[in-house]
Amino acid sequence: MNLQKEGLTKADAVRMYQYFERLERKLDALVGGISAPPPDNVPATTPQRGGKHLEIPKQIVPNYHPDNELELMKQVRHMAKYLMKRENRKSPFPKPPTKDELDIFATRRLGGPTLANFRLDLANYSYQSPWNLAAAELFADAYIGQHERDITNRQVIKSLFLRHLHDLGEQYKDLQVLQLPPDDDQRIKLDARNARRLVTTRRASLALRRYNVIEAMRKLRKFSPLLAQLGRDGMSDDEFAPGPYSPPKYNIVQLTWRSKKLTALLRALDALHIYTRFSNGHKPSRGNWPRRREKSALVDHSRAAPKGLPRNCYDKTWLKHLTPIEKKQLNAGRKINLKLPPKLQRQISSGQDS
Prior knowledge:
- There is one protein chain.
- The chain has helices spanning 10-21, 27-31, 67-83, 99-108, 130-146, 154-178, 185-216, 224-230, 260-276, 316-320, 324-330, 342-353; strands at 48-49, 52-53, 237-241, 249-255, 292-294, 299-300.
- By secondary structure, the chain is mainly α.
């Protein structure tokens, strides 16, 4: 496939290939607090327009960080794992300091963390305790020593480490709970929370992928405010479809409030994403592919509709069943054109037919 021959400018094509080449790699850092790779890793490099970085809407990724900060956070996480001799977030932690050790260090500055025995005060969630603050100083010194050519401010490294302590504390407590029987109340709550995290990650993944499609193409940027309004909570969920499917298939759970026109636009963005994964010829760009999602009869009646969307984004039948008060609270806006430009629609059609 040749995007330029299909009506895109060379600049559009270059931007799209750059964005989507690494679209699968950093969502764990983008959504924050989820370090393990989710089933659908679909982050993107920070979109740029006129040499300036674009901010990802908070409705899509609440804890968004620029690419340079993401890389720094990644280095901080890796060094923390190295100092604590851990391989991944499921690895055991060094035995945390006892209450007596913490008290003695806090009052008399005896003992304390060392690089050779890098223990943290995680059991009490005392992230700003004297022990952890001393550990942060040690960490910053060690990082700067290992990255002498890095111009990063020492205080920045210390702050990032203290921020990472929150995630380490969550990991530590989760590991304690995972040792409990499956029917224990704490274990049940943890499993439910982890399931919610995966759902949130998948929604953010889907929203971010679609947002990057429209930001990569000048002709689609008129939809940027709409995607920002929809956010991750405006994305549909899916359920695993049992069967001998390769790759695995997931059934889309329809949202009752969403109109067919809006759904068609979002599906078109998904198809355009797949289309842009191919450069000249038929060689796909690097990275994991999004999961295979297909239409189904599944419906979710419980999800609330985002407020303030253009009126034609809402299903007509769904709107009719709202009370006058509910319609007023919904605050639907003026209708907008939800169709793709004809050339892009033809590109999608030709890609699906090929």
